[in-house]
Specification:
mainly beta, Wheat Germ Agglutinin (Isolectin 2), domain 1, 5-stranded antiparallel beta sheet, globular
Length: 631
């Protein structure tokens, strides 16, 4: 048992206990990273809860003011900007409590306040001391930047993130051959350099260790040295090759942007490139977890087989796993004598569907939940309709929003009534078809799945748009949403739109109005006064609106689309505890005179399930309480 700077050790290895200066009980060393992992909260001590933590703490890294005080962040008077932990950067409200200084803006979350002042770890030979730095530093283990607390070795100036002290030891080979460099030029591992260097692969600064070629002075980050020569991304059909000579291939690429992040590429450094499609991407964009196709297998002996074995159709459909969505029962001659499917058995429905061109039906498509237009398939026995293009949707697809293949389902499987929330546009509830990942509970509605993620044009903007992950702070130009995923201007002008805005219908009918409404992207006049003729409230002239030109009738999109644009009302479900089918309806009247049969709550303007035969009515969210859905 030793005493080191306020820490008493009991034992060694997996059962090591310490008596930390900040806590009255011994703390057990966790080898799974829980002590330093900010995603786990109060697992430091098995003997007490938050109420037993010391109310005040004199921390050695903040000696100039009174002891830090344990507070509930909900009760703090500090501004949001002053509530982040000065070590890890997390906000206090991530934790039930935090230590804060009454004399300044210094804060420590519970985890950082409990870090040992000294430690001995596997990744370094000497003891390490906990220190604080207001400027950024480079961690010598993960080679990434850090700010705040770190462990420091006075003997050799080794610096490391606190969380990296629990990482396994990684030994870099002193000499390697890398795919990104001439195979006849081996690369040698070099320790930290005193002068600033630029990585010849990605063009970013080198601040830690690096690999060096003594034949041609090529320098490269440790992580860049392991980049493959060929990579496949989910959103592009062909493999991408790592090249350093983009101008020679296409002089216009001087103005190219990365097709993944929509930022300019520096043609003086390496990029991943498809010469067939003039598709270019930054090295680290193409190899990121979100973009890289992990199913791609490189075959260096036969590059043609690479392309054929990994070929994907234009909307991300995986040919090797695609299943045709219907069986044709009857054909009929179409234009130019080409036969078309006149009657089909679709995988989503128990009855046969017939192709029709009948106009004027006020029904929604069961797949995309948009109003029906010709041509479409209809069921003669029930109110089931599919647009022709929705009936032809592939049953499997790959999409850059998700790392796993997605399966087309006629209803979500984890909600009793088959409804879901779309992970792209964030609309909820939806009860159309969903492209679903059962493992991750990921759902993509049909309209969002149809948006192209390669460059395309939209009427609201003069330049092309590309699917991209937005830099922090940029918002949708129409609705101001700050979702991470947007479609950005391919010319890098700063314009961006989210999934919700891009999937708004171009034309809509509204109740009994005799003319259609068209989606407009700029004010209808220069009067300076803009109102919605439905709700009679003011409109923001910067935002899109629906407009009837025949009647000079403008309206908010939400007034035209309603509260539930992704719902088809009238769908029926059967449950094992009720003898009749229940219809999904929107109660627009009643004023609370009806009561839910489960919770006995009043029915106001709610979405409910209703039995027309026996006056049985239940809230949507109460459906699970009365039985298992049969479809």
């Amino acid at each position: 048992m030793t005493n080191t700077n306020g820490i008493i050790k009991y034992g060694e290895g997996a059962m090591e206990l310490i008596q930390h200066f900040s806590h009255p009980h011994p703390l057990l060393l966790s080898l799974d990273g829980s002590v330093l992992d900010h995603d786990h909260r109060y697992d430091l001590c098995g003997l007490c809860k938050e109420s037993e933590l010391p109310h005040q703490l004199k921390h050695p890294l903040h000696p100039k003011h009174d002891p830090l005080t344990l507070i509930n962040p909900v009760e703090t008077t500090k501004s949001i900007e002053d509530q982040s932990c000065n070590s890890c950067g997390r906000f206090e409200w991530w934790y039930p409590s935090a230590y804060t200084c009454s004399g300044c803006t210094f804060n420590l979350c519970i985890k950082c306040a409990s870090l040992s002042l000294t430690t001995k770890v596997d990744i370094h030979d000497h003891p390490l001391t906990l220190m604080q730095k207001s400027t950024q530093f480079i961690c010598d283990h993960c080679e990434k930047e850090g700010k705040g607390m770190f462990y420091f070795c006075a003997a050799c100036s080794f610096m490391v993130h606190p969380e990296c002290t629990l990482s396994p030891l990684v030994v870099r080979p002193p000499i390697i051959k890398a795919d990104i460099h001439d195979e006849d030029h081996p690369l040698t591992l070099v320790q930290r350099f005193l002068i600033s260097l630029t990585c010849n692969a990605c063009g970013n600064d080198i601040k830690g260790r690096f690999y060096f070629c003594d034949k041609c002075s090529f320098v490269v980050h440790l992580e860049c040295a392991s980049l493959p020569s060929v990579v496949k991304v989910i959103r592009h059909d062909h493999p991408l090759n790592l090249i350093y000579s983009l101008p020679a291939i296409n002089p216009l690429s001087l103005h190219s942007v990365c097709q993944l992040c929509v930022k300019m590429v520096d043609i003086d450094y390496g990029v991943y490139y498809c010469s067939t499609c003039d598709f270019v991407a930054h090295l680290h964009c193409a190899t990121s977890k979100e973009e890289k196709d992990e199913t791609f297998m490189q075959n260096s002996k036969d590059e043609e087989s690479i392309e054929s074995s990994t070929s994907m159709l234009e909307h991300g459909i995986d040919e090797s796993t695609d299943m045709f969505p219907y069986v044709v029962k009857k054909f009929k001659p179409g234009v130019d004598g080409i036969e078309i499917a006149a009657e089909i058995k679709h995988f989503s429905h128990e009855h046969d569907l017939k192709l029709t061109a009948k106009f004027g039906i006020n029904e929604k498509c069961d797949a995309c939940t948009r109003y029906i237009f010709t041509p479409y398939y209809a069921c003669a026995q029930c109110r089931f309709f599919l647009h022709k293009h929705c009936a032809e949707l592939s049953r499997r697809m790959r999409h850059p929003l998700h790392r796993h293949p997605l399966m087309l389902l006629p209803r979500a499987t984890y909600d009793s009534d088959g409804s879901f929330g779309c992970d792209a546009c964030r609309r909820h509830p939806c009860n159309g078809f969903t492209y679903n990942c059962e493992e991750c509970l990921f759902n993509l509605d049909v309209q969002c799945s149809l948006l192209p993620y390669n460059k395309f044009t939209h009427d609201s903007h003069e330049h092309g748009l590309i699917f991209s992950r937005l830099p922090k702070g940029r918002k949708c130009n129409n609705c101001d949403s700050d979702e991470e995923i947007h479609f950005c201007c391919a010319d890098n002008c700063g314009f961006a739109l989210d999934f919700k805005c891009l999937t708004m219908p171009h034309t809509m009918w509204y109740e009994q109005h005799e003319h259609p409404f068209t989606l407009c992207y700029a004010p209808e006049d220069d009067s300076g006064e803009y109102y919605c003729d439905i709700c009679e409230k003011e409109r923001d002239p910067r935002c899109w609106f629906y407009y009837c030109t025949d009647c000079i009738y403008p309206a908010h999109p939400e007034c035209i689309l309603g509260r539930f644009p992704n719902i088809k009302f009238g769908k029926t479900h059967t449950i094992d505890n009720h003898q009749h089918p229940l219809a999904f309806v929107h109660k627009t009247s009643g004023h609370g005179r009806e009561f839910c049969k489960v919770c006995v709550g009043r029915m106001y303007l709610d979405v409910v399930y209703e039995c027309a035969k026996c006056n049985f009515i239940v809230h949507k969210w109460c459906l699970d309480e009365i039985g298992t859905s049969k479809g």
